[in-house]
């Protein structure tokens, strides 16, 4: 499939002069062209590999949403919003509460992102599943949606947000926007609008109303506010589609107009990324899944640390120093030296490497309050010395561990596990799911919800997925 080969985390760097140049091409009728595609694209036209990746995206999303469902962030959101929620229309993964569909979409979106363990479109760093699936699963509990229609909408939503993200990345991201929120709202609106049967004109309006609700700034990273962004994008996109379904109007060119979304929030606008090869080139097929519960810029370093640990049976006591050559993005995004709580640990290369060497993992438990406050991990992170090397690509790392006995161990990572070049298998995704859901719902229920995700195309009702993933009252 076009564009699938050779893509990597290198797209994150955004350092080349060419990438920084503003591109404004094929800007005529972008919103209308996209809307026309969205209302006409059929499930039967989806290539088999795109359908399979859509199913994997769904399974990964449900696992991380269940896993995050009892984090303090979600507890606070549920407590704060319960008094204001409308009728109990939709359920929450891993919990017994039911909220109105927009509040449910928000809370599930927060839950799916709180561990930073969700899917990633590496070309843009968008986490596509949270905004889209949170919106359409909530909608599916209110109106009948079969599995084939659901999967088609999921793919179309992911395709929409990633294509729009491609058009403005990296400039939009570099200036400080959290692109999962700002592009994710389009994906949620497109997917929900498709399931609601919007006309072409109504879909134009839905996209326009989504454009009026960009949400998320990178300053929020390391706080609860980061997971607010995909949750809000899910609710806002659903909000936009519902309004458009009743003919609440917007401009017909809200994406591409002179004072529209792309020109307002970015100095780069490459509209070919949005409308080029629709139905032929699928960004949704390029989704990846995290083996580690943190931003992907940390994954090469964690991968290197775990490999060196396991190959040499290392203990913290043996380590004298840990030197690394890293891409500039690593310290820009994850340069916190002394994280005080689990969320901050996800933005600390020092913590990530130390905990990986000591515990041999980088899952949710390694980015907990317990882990960042562990005296042994704190001591070891003081020995981590990352050095910026612009020649190192974002998907690479060179690690050198000096031992007390004089030995020096080295490891270079070209592509970390979980990348397109080294993807997680279906079995890997199931292990991740079980680890996340363990202790929240029973083992048999875990098996049932995974089975429904894998077989979504055969379901008479997509709402069965939520029913299987909820906690008994």
TrEMBL record:
Locate the MmgE/PrpD N-terminal domain: which residues?
33-272
Keyword Signal recorded: yes
Q: Name one GO molecular function term.
A: lyase activity
- Domain MmgE/PrpD C-terminal, residue spans: 292-455
For whether the record's keyword set contains Signal, the answer is yes
One of this protein's Pfam families, by short name? MmgE_PrpD_N
User: Which keywords describe this protein according to UniProt?
Assistant: Signal
Which region is the signal sequence? 1-19
Q: Which PANTHER family does the annotation name?
A: 2-METHYLCITRATE DEHYDRATASE (PTHR16943:SF8), 2-METHYLCITRATE DEHYDRATASE-RELATED (PTHR16943)
Q: Give the family per the record.
A: Belongs to the PrpD family.
- Put simply, this protein is called MmgE/PrpD family protein
